[in-house]
Design brief:
The complex is a heterodimer of chains A (410) and B (296). Chain A is of the alpha/beta class and 410 residues long. Helices cover 40% and strands 17% of the residues of chain A. Chain A has 2 domains: 217 residues, Response regulator (Rossmann fold); 151 residues, 3-Layer(aba) Sandwich (Rossmann fold). The longest helix of chain A has 20 residues. By secondary structure, chain B is mostly helical. Chain B has one domain: ABC transporter involved in vitamin B12 uptake, BtuC. Helices cover 71% and strands 4% of the residues of chain B. Chain B contains 11 helices and 2 strands; from the N terminus they run H-H-H-H-E-E-H-H-H-H-H-H-H. In chain B, strands 1-2 form a two-stranded antiparallel sheet. In chain B, strand 1 and strand 2 form a beta hairpin. In chain B, helix 6 crosses helix 8. The relative contact order of chain B is 0.21. Classes of the chains: A alpha/beta (410), B mainly alpha (296). At the A-B interface, helix 2, strand 9, helix 7, helix 8 and helix 9 of A face helix 1, helix 4, helix 9 and helix 10 of B.
């Protein structure tokens, strides 16, 4: 695994005296502008099992940074350009913390964006909190903003909220289609993301008095899901809620098809709402539902720019990371300074509704005392002919839900 | 409440998955048996096999079951090349050096794959992928045998039998076993042991790559897929007895069955708990493996 993978504006640089010398020379050569560029730290899993998500996220951030740089940089900082300092967190929390530590001691970053996977973000937040640098994240886990940390900002609905919404929306969709839910099944991968979302699902189901006929955690690197699917088949559930990353989501949907299980499948974001899911399963994805913390059909004018640039639809992690970058840019513009405290003050008080910040559902981002975004609304999306369509809640829906099995062409 | 259907289904699932563990473990065991090297990078050849089969499918339209032979060939050559360049110089080196080399090779291969193939998950679609045999159906109960797994199992079985026949019946196979038993004596008998080492390594990596290719219809290929199998592979090999081909087969099937049956009584999250408890028990009580006879 490439443990250390530092890039600066896309090119690998050599650190140490040489770099310092070059910077000093560059500073001498252009003494006029005080603000050359603003370093923004980006820590993502760029290798290992979550690499694809990390790459999607980086694409979202780069898109925004490039747009800002092409349009004159950050005005309030004398047209300073955004310089992304990208580091690979791999998929290992210890490594993520080490990388964060190194980044904060070697590069003067104004804030850190990252790190997709909740377990990585948790590790990084320990470092950013200690060093008092804002950490902007789209990881779901409740824990991230449950610990009373002051320097972490979570732009998405937290995992338990997503879980709860998944359940509530499913009930609403079932009702709208004349079915009442009595027996549901939950299966989830057992790291921070799956566990927190399953908690929300479980709580909502219990409150609604619905029978949890299956409630099963499985290890993230699972290679054979047949025990899971056998159990699902025996459970006689009306709906299944799988919370999985990509490989496990493919295994689960495929095994369900093999066993002829045709109940509605409502995924827990992550693996269920990315182009690879479609590529891996083809027509089997048709009508698979999933919760999503954001959806590209909510702000097509912005998200189409991503599709043009990278050739695939703007996946939610790219969208949220783009929003985080947009929020940071607005905060820097308002603060007119790269001082951490000044940026933090803007993050704590401002309402972000301009530029890429508006790509989030409802078009507004704020952060409450806990560092959460109260305007974040989970959405229910559904696969239709290779695209994701928002189907619930009604005020955000761009299409009507099909409440039936995952069968294609039926 | 476990009905006869549930138990039979569990047995079938365990055997189907165990057959795959068996074929990917044969290679590891062979390499150890002949060269006395523990190849930590071995699972990476499973990944390489998957990618070869994936490209064969994507570019040539070859079904992974046929692509598997291509994977076998490519990895056989690749393995022989690696043996000559990397493994041969450290055959006589201290064990620590061998461990460092193969662990280093693991990281190198994984990252090379990441550079070459990208971090994308690659998956094939074949017509039989979502179809399954339904046996003994009655009253809503039935035994399900997914075709993808059945084919993979049969292919694995076929290759396992071929390797066994090769080792038992051919002169080269006998020479390889002789090298495994006593390299010095084999050399005195006129066997080119260097060639045997190279062949064994190629065959070992090729077999594992073949196993990787045949599971492609139900497992996604990615540069890190090896890490999902490496522990299972070592468990299978140690259970059956490191260095024994027949042992690797028994070990592989056992691992599959243990995984499958433990899911009946324990949460799936603890799928591997019983497996590792048995693993530790075997190491403590019968470290030479359940089948201790060495067949090379």
């Amino acid at each position: 695994m490439s443990r250390m993978f530092w890039t600066r504006a896309g090119a690998v640089t050599r650190r140490g005296a040489l770099a310092a010398g070059t910077v000093a020379l560059a500073a001498l050569a252009t003494p006029l502008s005080a603000q050359e560029s603003v370093n923004v730290g980006v820590i993502l899993p760029l290798s290992g099992p979550n690499a694809q998500f990390g790459i999607n996220s980086r694409n979202g951030i780069e898109l925004v940074a490039n747009e800002i740089n092409e349009n004159g940089g950050i005005e309030a900082l004398g047209g300073a350009r955004i310089n992304l300092v990208v580091a690979d967190a791999t998929s290992n929390p210890t490594q993520a913390a080490t990388v964060a530590q190194r980044m904060l001691s070697q590069d003067e970053v104004v804030a850190v964006l990252g790190a997709f996977a909740s377990s990585l973000t948790l590790a990084i937040s320990e470092v950013t909190e200690r060093r008092q640098v804002p950490l902007l994240t789209m990881s779901f886990s409740d824990q991230i903003t449950d610990r009373g940390f002051e320097w972490v900002y979570q732009i998405v609905p937290v995992g338990s909220e997503l879980g709860r919404a998944t359940f509530d929306y499913a009930v609403a969709l079932a009702e709208a289609n004349g079915e009442s839910l009595d027996r549901v099944a939950i299966m989830y991968e057992d790291t921070a993301y799956g566990t927190s979302q399953a908690e929300g699902l479980r709580a909502a189901a219990q409150e609604a008095g619905v029978d949890l006929v299956m409630d099963e955690a499985y290890p993230l690197g699972i290679t054979d899901v047949s025990p899971l699917i056998n159990q699902l088949r025996r459970s006689d559930a009306q709906v299944v809620f799988p919370v999985s990353y990509l490989n496990d989501s493919l295994l689960i949907v495929r095994s369900m098809r093999q066993q002829g299980i045709e109940i509605p499948t409502i995924g827990g974001a992550a693996g269920y709402i990315i182009p690879d899911f479609r590529e891996g399963l083809g027509d089997l994805t048709e009508n698979v539902l999933s919760i999503s913390p954001a959806a590209y059909d909510q702000a097509p004018d912005l998200t189409d720019r991503f599709r043009e640039e990278y050739g695939y639809f703007m996946v939610h992690e790219a969208q949220e990371h783009a929003a985080l970058m947009g929020v940071l840019v607005s905060a820097l513009e308002a603060a007119g300074s790269t001082e951490a405290a000044a940026v933090k003050e803007q993050l704590d008080t401002m309402t972000f509704d301009e530029g890429w910040a508006a790509v989030m559902t409802g078009g507004e981002v704020e952060f409450d005392d806990q560092g959460r975004n109260p305007n974040a609304v989970p959405l229910m999306v559904q696969w239709r002919g290779g695209e994701l369509v928002t189907v619930w809640p009604e005020e955000y829906a761009t299409g009507e839900a099909v409440w039936k099995t995952t069968s294609a062409g039926e | 409440m476990q009905t006869i259907y549930t138990l039979t289904q569990t047995l079938v699932d365990g055997l189907l998955i165990g057959g795959i563990y068996a074929v990917i473990s044969i290679g590891l065991s062979l390499v150890f048996g002949v060269m006395h090297i523990v190849n930590f990078a071995h699972a990476e050849f499973l990944m390489i096999g998957m990618f070869v089969a994936w490209y064969a499918w994507a570019w040539l339209g070859l079904d992974p079951m046929l692509g598997a032979f291509l994977a076998l060939g490519v990895t056989f050559l690749l393995g022989m090349g690696m043996q000559r360049v990397l493994i041969k110089p450290i055959l006589a080196a201290p064990q620590v050096a061998q461990i460092f080399l193969t662990v280093g090779l693991l990281f190198a291969l994984e990252n090379a794959a990441l550079l070459l193939f990208g971090a994308d998950y690659r998956s094939v679609s074949t017509p039989y992928q979502t179809e399954a045999l339904s046996l003994f159906a009655s009253g809503g109960e039935r035994i399900i045998v997914p075709y993808a797994k059945l084919f993979a199992f049969l292919m694995a079985l076929g290759l396992g039998a071929s390797v066994w026949l090769f080792l038992q019946r051919t002169r080269t196979g006998q020479a390889m076993r002789a090298t495994a038993q006593d390299a010095t004596a084999a050399r005195l008998m006129g066997i080119d042991t260097d060639r045997m080492y190279m062949l064994a390594f190629g065959l070992g990596t090729g077999t594992t790559a073949f196993g990787g290719a045949v599971i492609l219809p139900y497992i996604t290929a990615s540069p890190t897929v090896g890490s999902q199998y490496v522990v299972l592979m070592f468990t299978a090999v140690v259970l059956g007895g490191l260095g024994s081909v027949a042992g690797a087969v028994v070990g592989g099937l056992l691992v599959g069955l243990i995984q499958s049956f433990s899911a009946l009584v324990l949460p799936i999250q603890l799928q591997n708990l019983i497996l590792f408890v048995i693993f530790i028990a075997v190491l403590a009580l019968k470290p030479e493996g359940i089948l201790s006879r060495r067949t090379g």
